[in-house]
Amino acid sequence: MAFTGAGASAEAGIPTFRGKGGLWDKYKPEELATPHAFSKDPKKVWEWYKWRMSIISRAKPTRAHEVLAKWEERGILMGVVTQNVDGLHQVAGSKNVVELHGSVWRVRCSSCGIKYDLEFGRIPEEELPTCRRCHGLLRPDVVWFGEPIPHDQFNRAQKMFSEAEVILVIGTSGAVMPAAMLPINAAMEGKVLIEINPEETNLSSFSTIKIREPAGKAFDKLDKILWEEGSLEDR
Ligand SMILES: NC(=O)c1ccc[n+]([C@@H]2O[C@H](COP(=O)([O-])OP(=O)(O)OC[C@H]3O[C@@H](n4cnc5c(N)ncnc54)[C@H](O)[C@@H]3O)[C@@H](O)[C@H]2O)c1
Ligand SMILES: [Zn+2]
Fold first, then answer.
1. 1 C-alpha to ligand 1 centroid (Å)
2. Does 234 reside within a domain?
3. How far away, in angstroms, is 226 Cα from ligand 1 center?
4. pLDDT confidence bin for 230, thresholds 50/70/90
5. Is 233 inside a domain boundary?
6. Which residues are catalytic?
């Protein structure tokens, strides 16, 4: 299985939060990605999300997204647990995707809780989108700082980790809890973690194999080794 973070989409042109050129260099998370920020200034939070959505809507899946989808289709990858909210795994064709932190392509009513799916690339036009049912304020259906991961997603993720033998840990700093506990617990249980990240992270010391390359480049090579050089041809 694969566990992905913002770095998996970095080569698609979507800024990460941490690491070189990360979003937190320019913006303060506590002013934008929190429930408090939304109740204080929903327009500002929506402006930030629409800006991020416009970047994501122009992005194309990277080689890493493509290869993960291909490996799932060929039956050697169980699925992906992602911390990303961009929807690029699904655009690339991955089917078994757990979105731990939600998706910017879904909104939720802050009053009645109903959820609305948005098509990939469809950015709400209104300054402050409202619920068709109760006229409450809609918010991005993402997990903000201080909010819990929805139980159903966390349970699905735990199940995938418990069934996996090898976990590809791609482009995550391992700084966001409780998401980062999933690969850490797996490593403690003796599972093999393969980290693909140009930089050292909190998860490096738990990883058996470390590939210090950008994800797109690494997956291009890994895919060639697995198929073009023939080792998995018969599967
Ligand atoms: N694309 C997105 O959906 C997106 C973008 C930014 C932040 N986020 C959110 O931010 C939170 C941040 O945690 P996180 O751990 O996912 O990201 P992070 O920003 O904390 O860390 C990014 C990691 O990616 C690595 N990286 C940078 N370029 C890379 C590349 N080309 N290939 C491989 N690795 C690369 C960095 O070294 C760093 O370790 C997540 O919960 C997520 O919801 C999502
Ligand atoms: Zn509503």
1. 18
2. no
3. 26
4. low
5. no
6. 101
Domain of residue 57 covers 2-228
Closest CA to 54 of 13, 111, 98, 91: 13
In a domain, 235, yes or no: no
On whether the CB atoms of residues 105 and 118 are closer than 8 A, the answer is yes
199 ligand 1 Cβ < 6 A? yes
Residue 39 in any domain: the answer is: yes
Chain-wide mean pLDDT for the chain? 93
CATH of the domain at 53: 3.40.50.1220
In this structure, which residue's CA is closest to atom 29 in ligand 1? 7
Domain count along the chain: 1
Vertex 202: Cα angle to 63 and 7 (nearest 5): 20
Three-class SS state of 41: coil
Asked if residue 11 lies in contact with residue 62, where contact means CB atoms within 8 angstroms, the answer is yes
Q: For the whole model, what pTM was predicted?
A: 0.94
- Tens digit of each residue's pLDDT (9 = 90 or more) over 144-162: 999 999 999 999 999 999 9
Res. 231: pLDDT tops 70: no
Tell me which ligand sits closest to the C-alpha of residue 85.
1
